[in-house]
């Protein structure tokens, strides 16, 4: 490609609403252009990267035996009603009406449609296993779209759906996709981790996320440097940090703590160790009676050590909360505890409040907590003596230094961007939609499903978050919009330079290098700044001075300081040899 | 590809609502699957064809210097309001609201978005010309989706938009796209015609449709076998079929024609030549007064010779009708003519009715027409004597035998399916959205635009309409889901057959042939029927009998009767040589 036949458009500054580096650089490099909140045009430069990502995914999906099809973007509501997601999905599901006032959705995923296809197409065990995928536009009507292509509303996703005879087969399909994903993200040139993830409301037993490691990531990954353990912090099991509970040594006392609502303030005021304080978090699960009328919410008191954080996913597994929950309102708290927040605790709570202690709290003794009376806390509190033994559960986020759930050393934390997800679905959709096959005995059996997603457009953003510097993007070779750029100095006026640049351009093309020749004849500083921003990984500068010595200058985008002079005749081989295929 | 690793699904019968051959065969061959009215899943077999069509289009668009990008499917209403199409587009434009109650559309085309991009990105004449295209999902909420993928609601279109400094430049861009389209449809292996087309409400001066010739086409093409003239019948100019007007020879008489409302019935009843009868068609254009309140519609009487058909596009060019029109209601007709339909005519009509005679009618004398009184017609009517000379316009469809507008012989008609359209837009959108560039003198100038569409998914249907037989589809090599199929007889049990089939499969793959090996081990009749239905153009049958002579059997889908025995060792070369690349 020659730059003048392409469409280059760079900006010196990113718009003020670009909130992460990848978004800023993609806009500045002319890769994306915002059309509406969370809706972007992929400009020619950006589309090249997206197509390369898609091609790698497609090759590895095909190699893993998956079969590509293309399901529609606009899907009829009936299927979503059958699966129950029409009601459950919430406002992110964009619901639309056609001219005949019939309900449709713009697909956020395609479980319903593929299961509908399966129930019509899959008749016999002989057709199994089968794994369908498509690479298609999705829409999720995020309340607050942000981070550019990483949390947009319209985006491209590869979603695959496997159908198997039984859990054993589904497990093999899952493993095949897990292996394919490892290959895909490796080929994309990314540092990533496959981490265990929560299976959420869908149920099912296995789920892994593929996380691209990046400081800007929204997810936190807990991993054990001494083993291959890695899990989303949502899932990572947290043990008690104490070695069993000490016997009570203090008596329970009620202490005035006027205006001290935070554990830290209370501990400081009373001169206590913060690690002896228990934090009370009040959650509420809305309920209806048999007639479907709203009832007062079920109130759940969760106890955490003051320095620990509530893990909402884990809380969602508590029996009282598994249908969904929220934080209790001040009114509900006053009603249930007789006190405003800031002074709450487990001592003497009403019977209809469920109390759960995190594992660490269950091992605490002589602790401090609110007295359920404004301006007062208790100290020297002990389970079994001052209040009943609590129900115990894992309710907190792990922290660095926690022991690894697999027994190998301790955990570390890092941030990641979820770019892929493999998920054992079981019969969640096949049962709802009645998708069965006939087994060898002619008996109908429910299909076992798995689903496997990759955020295609998000990957472009994640790659940039992982790899950039103050000048711009540093693309991995495999997904750079161009693998190499030729920057000729004085292209219009120097015949030598033009000839050398044109020749090298043709040679590189002949070697299969995806090269762009910058024939715009701009000042070197402007030209270099453009390509450093765009992040093309291999750059060849051709100037009269070098040509006098029969040389051109090579630099890798990841190491611009190291400029290598290469014989002109060997330049094409040199560059081609540097590109990681 | 091996059939067992792919997903084959054929049906013996098409669903009852499949109304054209292409739809029936695509469903039966497992290429598409209906999800909702006009919304289809492209099954693995169908997607292969779509991808091949896309690849050919992409290559030729790139070769013609167009630059690919990807504009969003969901587009904000504001841009459509700016262009005026939010109001004008009608119910086919699917309007949606997001969670914040903001208006969006699902794009039927992207003129607004690309013009918005151009007004931001194109600053200087140095950036021109530029031609952007994308291959993207579109949605048109057709009132009555039909003909499978040919008039669906969700479909894939390639749409390109050129930007130029002036009309001369735009004309060059137009010509480049016209030439690229010729290459594209030739490579797709289709019989097609580029025909002049109406420029419609958009205005502009040049427009060509690319029509795939097929009896099932919705469009009628008029062409001159003696020249390269070809036009959509909507546009093809019709001349008078008479050689000037004869002098009056009869007197005007009022004749009772009780219950005779059709020209044919009147002519038969009165014993007249039908070609002496004039048909009256009453059209109405709705109007509003200065306050925007509805006024009685403007009534237009169009006169056609009885055997001719009204051309609504041409009628739409009449000054009274150019803002849109409809057929008048019975009430409006009674009001304007004092008679019910069936007895209408131009004699003595009120002054506020505009009267237009088609060119042929203007040359008629002594003709018959309604008397504007139920049960009566006039005969022997003559313009200039019995009624004023009429305004004259070209208002009818051409018929076979009409003289060609380019003066070369006479016209023939054939049916076609519109699969592409090149259109000179001028400043329709650039002016509405204020898309300008700075010329050499630093003065802002309005961009000149062209738009160029190809119906990607429709092309699959059109190709089938053009090429099929009673057994199924006959694909052109370039867009067949597979170029060749190997049908081994007794694949599971005959080791010789399996070995020969596997070897030929590998050889063909090595030669770059897109081949599928049918390893399903089905009965020959079932296997052949499947591939004849699917329409793979080259078939190799391998059986023990032929192998004994060292031979396999080749047949082309287009000529199954001619079975050619080929030496096994030469089979790969033979098949590869038959494929039109």
Automatic annotation (TrEMBL), chains A, B:
PROSITE patterns: AA_TRNA_LIGASE_II. The keyword ATP-binding applies. GO terms for biological process: prolyl-tRNA aminoacylation. It holds the Pfam family HGTP_anticodon. It comes from the Bacteria. It catalyses: tRNA(Pro) + L-proline + ATP = L-prolyl-tRNA(Pro) + AMP + diphosphate. SUPFAM superfamilies: Class II aaRS ABD-related, Class II aaRS and biotin synthetases, YbaK/ProRS associated domain. Consists of three domains: the N-terminal catalytic domain, the editing domain and the C-terminal anticodon-binding domain. One of its GO terms (cellular component) is cytosol. Keywords: Aminoacyl-tRNA synthetase, ATP-binding, Cytoplasm, Ligase, Nucleotide-binding, Protein biosynthesis. It is found in: Cytoplasm. InterPro entries: aa-tRNA-synt_IIb, aa-tRNA-synth_II, aa-tRNA-synth_II/BPL/LPL, Anticodon-bd, Anticodon-bd_dom_sf, Pro-tRNA-ligase_IIa, Pro-tRNA-synth_IIa_bac-type, Pro-tRNA-Synthase_IIa_type1. The gene is proS. The lineage of its organism: Bacteria, Pseudomonadati, Pseudomonadota, Betaproteobacteria, Burkholderiales. Gene3D superfamilies: Anticodon-binding domain, Bira Bifunctional Protein, Domain 2, YbaK/aminoacyl-tRNA synthetase-associated domain. Residues 38-476 form the Aminoacyl-transfer RNA synthetases class-II family profile domain. Catalyzes the attachment of proline to tRNA(Pro) in a two-step reaction: proline is first activated by ATP to form Pro-AMP and then transferred to the acceptor end of tRNA(Pro). As ProRS can inadvertently accommodate and process non-cognate amino acids such as alanine and cysteine, to avoid such errors it has two additional distinct editing activities against alanine. One activity is designated as 'pretransfer' editing and involves the tRNA(Pro)-independent hydrolysis of activated Ala-AMP. GO terms for molecular function: aminoacyl-tRNA deacylase activity; ATP binding; proline-tRNA ligase activity. Homodimer. Belongs to the class-II aminoacyl-tRNA synthetase family. ProS type 1 subfamily. Its EC number is 6.1.1.15. This is Proline--tRNA ligase.
């Amino acid at each position: 490609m020659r730059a003048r036949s392409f469409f280059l458009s760079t900006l010196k500054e990113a718009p003020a609403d670009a909130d992460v580096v990848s978004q800023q650089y993609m806009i500045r490099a002319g890769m994306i252009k915002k059309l509406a909140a969370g809706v972007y045009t992929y400009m020619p430069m950006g589309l090249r990267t997206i197509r390369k990502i898609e091609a790698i995914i497609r090759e590895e999906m095909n190699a893993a035996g998956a079969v590509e099809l293309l399901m529609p973007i606009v899907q009829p509501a009936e299927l979503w009603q059958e699966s129950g997601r029409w009601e459950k999905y919430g406002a992110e599901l964009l619901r639309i009406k056609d001219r005949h006032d019939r309900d449709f959705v713009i697909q956020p995923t395609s479980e319903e449609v593929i299961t509908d296809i399966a129930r019509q197409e899959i008749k016999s065990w002989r057709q199994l296993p089968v794994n369908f995928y498509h690479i298609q536009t999705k829409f999720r009507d995020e309340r607050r779209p942000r981070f550019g292509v990483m949390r947009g509303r319209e985006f491209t996703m590869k979603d695959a759906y496997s159908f198997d005879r039984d859990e054993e087969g589904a497990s093999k399909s899952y493993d095949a996709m897990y292996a394919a994903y490892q290959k895909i993200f490796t080929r994309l040139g990314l540092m990533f981790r496959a981490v265990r993830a929560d299976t959420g409301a869908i149920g099912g037993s296995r789920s892994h996320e593929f996380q691209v490691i990046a400081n800007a990531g929204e997810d936190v990954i807990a991993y054990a440097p001494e083993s291959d353990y890695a899990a989303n912090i949502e899932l990572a099991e947290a043990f008690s940090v104490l070695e069993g509970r000490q016997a009570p040594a203090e008596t329970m006392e009620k202490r005035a703590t006027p205006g001290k609502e935070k554990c830290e303030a209370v501990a400081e005021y009373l001169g206590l160790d913060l690690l002896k304080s228990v934090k009370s978090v009040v959650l509420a699960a809305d309920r209806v009676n048999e007639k479907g009328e709203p009832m007062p919410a079920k109130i759940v008191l969760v106890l955490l050590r003051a320095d620990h954080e509530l893990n909402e996913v884990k809380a969602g597994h508590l029996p009282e909360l598994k249908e969904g929950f929220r934080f209790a309102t001040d009114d509900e708290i006053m009603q249930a505890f007789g006190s405003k927040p800031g002074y709450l605790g487990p001592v003497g709570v009403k019977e209809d409040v469920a109390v759960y202690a995190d594992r660490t709290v269950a091992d605490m003794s002589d602790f401090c907590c609110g007295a359920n009376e404004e301006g007062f806390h208790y100290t020297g509190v002990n389970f079994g003596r001052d209040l009943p033994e609590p129900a115990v559960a894992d309710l907190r986020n792990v922290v660095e230094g926690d022991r690894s759930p697999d027994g190998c050393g301790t955990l570390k934390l890092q941030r990641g961007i979820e770019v892929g997800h493999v998920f054992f679905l079981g019969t969640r959709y096949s049962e709802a939609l009645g998708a069965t096959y006939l087994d060898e005995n002619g008996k109908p059996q429910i299909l076992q499903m798995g689903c496997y997603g990759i955020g295609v457009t998000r990957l472009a953003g994640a790659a940039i978050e992982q790899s950039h510097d103050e000048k711009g993007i540093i693309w991995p070779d495999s997904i750079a919009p161009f693998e190499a750029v030729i920057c000729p100095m004085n292209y219009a006026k120097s015949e030598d330079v033009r000839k050398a640049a044109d020749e090298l351009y043709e040679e590189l093309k002949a070697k299969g290098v995806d090269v762009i020749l910058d024939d715009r004849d701009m000042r070197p500083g402007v030209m270099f700044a453009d390509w450093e921003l765009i992040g093309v990984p291999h750059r060849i500068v051709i100037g009269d001075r070098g040509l006098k010595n029969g040389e051109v200058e090579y630099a890798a985008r990841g190491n611009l300081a190291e400029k290598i002079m290469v014989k002109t005749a060997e330049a094409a081989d040199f560059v081609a040899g540097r590109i990681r295929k």
